[in-house]
Amino acid sequence: MLIVQKFGGSSVADKERIMNVAEIIAKTHNEGKKVVVILSAQGDTTDELLQKAAEISENPSEREVDMLLATGEQQSVALMAIALNSMGLPAVSLNAQQIGISTSSTHGNARVLNICGERIPAELEEGKIVLVTGFQGINEYGDITTLGRGGSDASAVAMAAALGAELCEIYTDVDGVYTADPRIVKNAGKLDQISYDEMLEMATLGAKVLHNRSVEMAKTHNVNMCVRSSITKAEGTRVVNSGDIERHAVVGVAGDLDVCLVAVREAKNETGSLYKLFSVLAGHGINVDIITQFKGDSFSEITFTVSKKDAEKTLKALNENKNHLAIETIKTDGSMAKVSAVGVGMASNPGVAAKMFEAIYECDSEIFLITTTEIKISVLVNAGDYVKVMNAVHEKFELGRTNQITK
Known about the structure:
Layout: E1 2-7, H1 15-30, E2 34-39, H2 45-56, H3 62-86, E3 91-94, H4 96-99, E4 101-103, E5 112-115, H5 119-125, E6 129-133, E7 136-138, E8 144-146, H6 151-163, E9 167-172, E10 193-195, H7 196-204, H8 212-221, E11 225-229, E12 237-240, E13 252-266, H9 273-283, E14 291-295, E15 300-306, H10 311-320, E16 327-342, H11 352-362, E17 369-373, E18 376-382, H12 386-396
Parallel strand pairs: 1-2, 1-9, 2-6, 3-6, 9-11, 10-12
Antiparallel strand pairs: 4-5, 7-8, 11-12, 13-15, 13-16, 14-15, 16-18, 17-18
């Protein structure tokens, strides 16, 4: 049996945590399983390396930044190999080039294209534990690339898919996926299982346990995933096909404070105005979330949300194209939060929206925007109401008590 294990930066932040992770890896190996381990850079190493680059240049080369950042993961795998060797276990550390992780050429946000080469299978056949640098690959020019946010999770899932692993374990500083962020919702409960689609929505909507890129990749390649803690060693949460679990109307509530509301009034009401507006934003690399439109007799009002980091860029792009888009006014509001209810059973359970809106009404909060899919309902509320709305919606659906997923 082959298992891919991934450990985040907080799990290997210092000597004690490295030795703790080494014990987890050793236990898996001693159970007779083949083990491939993906490691992130220790603790805040990546941020520290970025700070070093910023101290030297305000606009460092993206290629050189990737070259610099890749050293963090290489340090982690080498230290882990040393730790395992000191325990009498055969282990070898390898970087992206040594095992043939090929990626696209976008520095800072590359995508894994392929994992080729026989190095890992050969090392596993010799009975070794293989430790691989996460977050990085090699592009067609032979340059090091990094995979951006969630890159180590993506590395682990890609490795599991390429090797045909029976399980991909994602170890973090939490012991699984919860019905809501337990730091915000006191009654949040840990889920035994969650579907790929639900986990993808939860990750996209603000849950920080897994990055949506890794979940999407796992679903595409049918990789069995489990999220668990490297600290408590408690049973984690399995991410599986929706057909393998009982469907509930709502399984979790996700929240996101990284929201800026943008309202644009155009002096025209013509066909193609939406296309023109959002083409401008797309050309500037701005992702747009919730969108609504109101058409008057001679004007159009378009409201949408972007992340706060893109707010200034959005304003600049719109102002530069103000005449072309016939924009009269642009308003922004960064005092918003998004709260979402997620569940694959929504389509077959009527009344979910009414129940959610009732919860928000009962806690005396106002809804500004609404968007829905078959498995989610998202609303925009005042950021000041964020905590009470999260708790109210969670309580209304009795999550953490009766709605945990079991087989």
